[in-house]
């Protein structure tokens, strides 16, 4: 890495008043550093460089600004740099200052950085606090997210994962679940947003996080929100169900067409199932999911699914749907106190299950690679 004197010289070039060509070479060098783990860890100890990058996002040169944002995206992907970026470089006000600008062309990179910084609770708290300090708040983020074409130069898809990250905090969930605001109802259609897997996954992650608050389950499943079809439709396929099974389903899931396709992304499929599973944690949730005939959809899904980790989640849900009700006093599975020895056994079982899933995934991967190598035309296409 750089000697102290070299670092000082480089830092002296990272100023708004430096000659453009020299400044460009300096930001290009920093960008190269951020592309390596060692480079990121080096810059972790150099808060002045982080501050300089933040300031240079205001440069008149588009190329320099682009390099700075690219560097900040790389740096924010490293968890060890979250605190230096937020606390020492004070990057959040700089980012949020531009987020509301519908003409700002680097808003997508800002969204990516904010998503990275909010991934872990420690700095997620800082992001939410700064949103409030800047008079943006959750309301404006949701408004921008739900306004198609808000920024003509940026897609803002990464606001989805940002919302998902923010809802790991009770305060953010409280806003999303506020019954007077109709926020969650605005987000539901994005579970089937075809244009972006990032936006789609972000919303599904948000819904899953909100379902950890079991006191809202009955409301979420009621006609006021009607969350169930939005979770089930991406998991439903074209399989023909019996008339009796169809009649028991929510209207939107009855008699689906032959070309009905399922969610492409396995991680999103898993999150959808996990959200349904959370809704079965309460007695009223289980009753509604059984009454709404969720089982046939999941039965057909289980036959179709190939990914081991998704199959495992599906089997847990099916087990609840077809199983007996818990004994009296244990109706709310989120409030059941598990004895320490039982909890330990459950963890051991979960670890073994995860090990088995990983083995199955390796086998599946090997089969796919073998299939591709034996059919090179598939690769060309």
UniProtKB/TrEMBL annotation:
Chain segments annotated as coiled-coil in the UniProt record: none
Domain (Protein HGH1 N-terminal) ranges: 99-270
InterPro entries noted in UniProt: ARM-like (IPR011989), ARM-type_fold (IPR016024), Hgh1 (IPR039717), Protein_HGH1_C (IPR007206), Protein_HGH1_N (IPR007205)
SUPFAM superfamilies: ARM repeat
Compositional bias segments (type: Polar residues): 372-381
Domain Protein HGH1 C-terminal: 275-328
Region described as Disordered: 349-381
One Pfam family recorded for the sequence: DUF384
Biased composition (Basic and acidic residues): 349-371
UniProt family annotation: Belongs to the HGH1 family.
Protein name, UniProt field: Protein HGH1 homolog
Organism: Tachysurus vachellii
